Amino acid sequence: MSNSDVNVLVVEDNVFNMELTVDLLKSYGYNITKAEDGYIALEKLKNTKIDLILLDMQLPKMDGLELLSKLKNDPETMNIPVIALTAHAMLGDKKRFIDAGCDGYISKPMDIHKFKSQIDQHLNNDR
C-alpha cells in the first residue's frame, strides 16, 4: 500500500493544529479527512474507509476519551489504529491514553522531525 492509498482521519478542533497536521500528512502523500469534533468524526467514519486516526483529546461536545471508547467498542472501527495527538504531556498522560485504548501517543507541540516515523510505525503495523 502506497501513501496515496492511506486515509488518515484528523480529529482536531484547533484550526492552527489542524492545518499543521494536515499539511504534514499531505506532504507525506496521505489522503486526509478532517473532523472538528467527535460527532463529525463518527459521521465521516460511516462514509470513508480510514486507516489511521489522529485524535486530539481535548475536543468540544465529546472529548477524545469518549470518542475513543465509541471507536473501540464499535466492530466497524475497533481495529483502526488511534494515536492520541494531545497537549496533555504530563507524567502519566501517555499511559492513561494508551490504557484507554490508544495505539500511540504524540504530544503537542509535536516534533515534526519525528512525526512521520511515528505515523509510519502505526501504519506499518497494520499493513
Category from helices, strands and their pairing? alpha/beta
Uncertain ranges: none
Q: Encode the helix/strand succession as letters.
A: EHEHEHEHEH
Shape: globular
Number of helical segments with 4 or more residues: 5
Can you summarize the main beta sheet? 5 strands, parallel
Give the key terms.
127 residues, alpha/beta, five-stranded parallel beta sheet
Structure commentary:
With 127 residues, the chain is an alpha/beta fold. Helices cover 43% and strands 18% of the residues. The chain contains 5 helices and 5 strands; from the N terminus they run βαβαβαβαβα. The chain has a 5-stranded parallel β-sheet, with helices on both faces. The longest helix has 15 residues. The protein is globular. The N and C termini lie close together (8 Å).
Summary?
The chain is of the alpha/beta class. 43% of the residues lie in helices and 18% in strands.
List the helices and strands and how they pair.
Blueprint: E1 7-11, H1 15-27, E2 31-35, H2 38-47, E3 52-55, H3 64-72, E4 82-86, H4 93-100, E5 104-107, H5 112-126
Parallel strand pairs: 1-2, 1-3, 3-4, 4-5
